[in-house]
Design brief:
The complex is a heterotrimer of chains A (438), B (305) and C (303).
Chain A (H helix, E strand, L loop, with lengths): L5 H27 L3 E6 L3 H15 L3 E6 L1 H13 L6 E5 L3 H6 L3 E2 L5 H4 L7 H6 L1 E2 L2 E2 L1 E14 H6 L9 H13 L7 E2 L8 H11 L21 H12 L13 H9 L5 E5 L3 H4 L11 E4 L11 E11 H5 L1 H15 L7 H10 L12 H8 L4 H9 L1 E3 L7 H17 L4 H18 L1
Parallel strand pairs in A: 1-2, 1-3, 8-9, 11-12
Antiparallel strand pairs in A: 3-11, 4-11, 5-6, 7-9, 7-10, 7-11
Helix pairs in contact in A: 10-18, 18-19
Chain B lengths: L20 H29 L18 H7 L2 H33 L5 H8 L1 H4 L2 H12 L5 H8 L16 H26 L3 H9 L4 H30 L2 H7 L10 H11 L3 H26 L4
Helix pairs in contact in B: 2-13, 3-8, 3-10, 6-11, 8-10, 8-11, 10-13, 12-13
Chain C lengths: L3 H32 L3 H4 L14 H8 L28 H32 L5 H10 L5 H14 L6 H26 L3 H8 L4 H12 L1 H17 L2 H6 L8 H9 L6 H27 L4 H5 L1
Helix pairs in contact in C: 1-13, 4-7, 4-10, 4-12, 7-10, 8-9, 10-13, 12-13
Classes of the chains: A alpha/beta (438), B mainly alpha (305), C mainly alpha (303).
Amino acid sequence: MKQFDRRDFLKASAAAALAGTGTVGALGRALAADPIQFFAWSAGVDQVKSHVSAFEAKTGLKVVYGNAPWAQYRDTLVTKFVGKAPLDVLWVSDSWLPEWAEAGWLAPIDGYPQLLKYNADVDDFSTKSMMWKGKQYGLTYYTDYMAFFYDEEMLKKAGFSAPPNTWDEVVQQSLKIKQAKLSEYPLMLSMARETWLIEFLSAIVFSHGGRFVDDAGVAVMQDKKKGAYESLTWIVNAVNKHKIVSPACVEIGELNGLKAFTSGQHAFAMLGRYRVRTLNDPKQSSIAGRVKQAMMPAGPNGKHATVGWNRFYGLTTTAARDKQKAADAVQFIEWFGGKADGKYAFQKLMFMDVGAGFAVKPLFQDPDIIKTYAQYSDIKMYEKQQALAQKKDVISPWFGEWDEVNGTAWQSAVVGKSSIDDALKRSADTWNKLRKQA
Amino acid sequence: MSARAGALRGVFGAPVSRYDQASALWLLAPMLAVLLVVAVFPVLYSFWISLFDLKLTRPHRVPFVWFENYAAIFQDELFWSSVWRTASFTVMSVAAIMAIALAMALLLNEEFRGRRFLSAMLLVPWAIPYVANGLMWKWIYDSGYGALNGILFQLDFIDKYMVWLGDSRKTLVLIANAFVWKEVPLATILLLVGLKSIPADLYSAARVDGANTWRRFVHITLPALRPSFMLVLIYETMMAIRHFDLFFILTEGGPAEASHVLAWHVYVETFRKLSFGTGSALAYIMALVTFLLAFWLIRTLGRKL
Amino acid sequence: MSRRPGLGRRIFLFAASAVFLAYVLAPVAWLVSSSLQRDAEITSRPPHWIPHQPTLENFAAIFEARDKKVTYETRREGDPATGGYIPSTARNLLPSMWNSLVVALSVVALNLLVAVPAAYAMAKIRFIGRSTSIYFMLTTRVIPDIALVVPFFLVIRTFGLLDHLGSLVITYLAITVPFSVFILVSYFESLPDELDKAARVDGCSRLQTMLRVYVPLALPALVAVVLFTFLSSWNEFLLALMFTQTPKSQTMPIVVASFASDFTISFAFINAAGVLAVIPPVVMAIAFERYIVSGLTAGAVKG
């Protein structure tokens, strides 16, 4: 056996050490850094993947992209946060921001001017939706609002050349359509318990000129003038008195509602604006080509306001604590939520491919976008209604809990289990109680 | 536990043989290892959490509150109505499962052509993934396009499409139907296994003695089926009490709380309100009730343990 | 003896079979039928029980999908306006079914290894702590799964098994073992003790007695355990959702669920996915059903 003496050993170690540093040096920053952990819900998966590939090619950073179905997204994230799974950037819905910020899971991006500069191009309600207690927590992924759609042909057949301007007119037109036997329940309204319910309700409340809570955060929903009383009364009457909305509305969710409208059963529908693409696609809709967007009908004291929502890129506190991770994550957020190579590439990609709304105003002037949108809807209407969108006023750390009670209360009123006053009072009391406890 | 070897009986009533601690422990070791490592920690951890007022949106203040969470739960009206709903759901489902499964098992126990085809098809409801099952039933019950409405309408039982899941009087029954449909295959198989353990000559002897089908059924089949029956009863009761998936997919506890059962209540507390303390406490209450129920069933239907 | 009882019996059995077949298959038949339709046709009133324009495009989308690096050029514009509203996660369905299969088979094998000895011991051996063991097993299953999600998650994370199929195997094992043991104990107890004594008189150890005498006799119960553990693992959704992050480890229920809540939705496609997901378990069930239905009965015991 050959003697392995000290000189050989030293030579071998030195060689190994040199080789080691050489290797690390050669491969550079990319391999030395951890990959960016990005989690989202399963929308536009291919679009995200393609944009991620471009990011990796440009920066040399690696990204691990995971996703979960939207219906289970929140629960998955809660488990991940509580279980401290590795996570750097994620999609967040505006409804959850206060909860997750208070729980210490999301970090503000106020310290990154390279991100904040994009606010100048974004609609106000959208930026406000990402703020909590004066701090901003991300850049917009997509933003959209609740729109009012109608079937032009069905209206023509009933003798109407223009869509309804107020909620009263909605009733009148619906009754006539019902009489003409063109539709049994002319207005499609989703009242099922799901994440979308608060958006449907807010649209009706805002367009009636009401609010759930005032600017100070005190509940006003039970107020007959400033609150949701008019709105809930309208809905209850629509279902039970005029019978222009199906009693099955409490089981119809947003997706089922979409399918129902596409089958030509209704004259009017309240749906997310981005749905217009599906509504006018002949492969998916029997009424393709006939669907138009109208301004949200106004209540007697209201204007054509609607509710807007925002989903954004959030930064986790674990990422924010580590300088390198934070820098990488911020770069990622800019590539997706801001400009990539000088253009709002991802936002445009999502719009062209999937029809997702964007928050960045310059894109309204983009010729490709104008041309594409003209194929199925009116871009002027898009802009006009978006200007009147308000952010949800019930966003708070206790939103999850209050939403449960409120949703049930409105449903009880609709099915006749409770009076309108009682339902709203219950909702308001819960809000005030939770607010005090916080 | 009685020391008389002759009187010693197992869980399911049959006698067991001699005393042999060492072998038993060796044979049990793998199972104990698996359960101790994976299952025990979660069980204990949940209990530990239930003693704190843990709200995730208030992470800096997590006081130890002994059993206050439990007390708060018992004072919650929604808890008691959930208990009632869970109880009705469980009783309805288990009764239906036992009846249908027994009928199917008896049928499959007979010799006839096509029996093998029938038994293979029996497994299909069981094989469908929960998500697909939930969506399928949601589609069937749909008030706009559902197959249920479609077929009743075509057979002239109804003159226009009805609201099904959205009608709070019908919600629980419909969910129970979907649940039963999926559980029947397993129950049938287990009862069939029990039927197969009955020696055939018992029947022939009885027939020679002049007993007709009904008497053979009552005096031979039912008693011999008792252990399997108990097995299925306990399992299905446990499954019904804790069932969550269909409630999540079909109605999310609605409409207006018509399908708000205990399992859903735990989910809302834990994941919607982010109140882990009360959520865990609620889960423990459910666990205790389930355990007591199972214990009671074993004691009354099995012999002494 | 007159012929009439025979005929009456046959008619009764036939009628009963027809009823049960309808009960079991009717919803599934609708599932299959709708998977062969386009979305526009699915929403017809009344429904088209037999598709008027049958199409295989839903299934085709699943089989054509292939995983590759996605760039701007190669991205699938899986969306409404381009006509291809099949979800882009379709390509994950077949790999996820493979994952599900691997997990399910592992759980079955491990279950048998762990549960059979335990059940034999509990049924045939007298020892201190026998009733305690049984109640202990039950106790691990009385807590609703929702409450166990976070603690389970912590355990898996501690073992470093996040996003790994092993996490599912371990967890499913813990979940299915108690009931497997329960099924086997029930069956073992119904088998006579004389066999045990006879074997031991012949010089067999406990293990050999168990393997040579009782296991062969318990075939119907073993098959029930195999089916139970396979299907429980195959169908499990909640824990798989929490423990898996990327398609590398996702199982079939997760992928099917993702079809339902993607930005766009196709009910026909989901039904097609549902139909496909049913096939492996049904194949397995058909392979095994003879052991349950025919089964070894008193003949062996008497001898």
